[in-house]
Amino acid sequence: MADFGGLGGLAECRQINEADLFEMAINRALGDAMRQDTNLCKEIWSSLANQDWLHENGDTASYSFRAAGDLIAAILGEGNYMDWYCSGPYETVSDRIEVAMQREGWKPHDHNT
Q: How far apart (Å, rounded) are the C-alpha atoms in residues 30 and 71?
């Protein structure tokens, strides 16, 4: 099992972290759409910030507010975490993101179960 999570607070855009399997799953499932739709990027931020994710193999992923914005900037290849910081409600996973990530083997962790 591995625990994935982003960086955060970087002043400039970074490269996608190919060793981070969650980050690569987001890029595969939603990256092209993110580059065309800023509202989707805001949904991604909401789906990542303070939200734990579980992979069917036991891996986990968790992103702070800053790290969620940093991941979006890395996938877009421009900007930095502040472009997306607090761009939506945190811990709010939209249906389209949940479905896309389930295809990659990831699901949001419900802390109430």
A: 12
The predicted-structure confidence for 69-91, as pLDDT tens digits, reads as follows 999 999 999 999 899 999 999 99
- For residue 60, CA distances in Å to 32, 37, 64, 88 come to 24, 27, 14, 23
Tokens standing for residue 76: 């877009």
102: three-class secondary structure by DSSP: helix
**Residue whose C-alpha is closest to residue 69's, from 79, 55, 56:** 79
User: What tokens were used for 8?
Assistant: 């955060």
28 DSSP 8-state letter: I
pLDDT per position as a tens digit, 11-59:
567 788 899 999 999 999 999 999 999 999 999 999 999 999 999 999 9
Q: Phi first, then psi: what are they for 106, rounded to 5°?
A: -110, 145
Structure confidence at residue 7 (pLDDT) = 54
Give Rg (Cα) of the chain.
Answer: 12
Structure tokens at 53: 């994710």
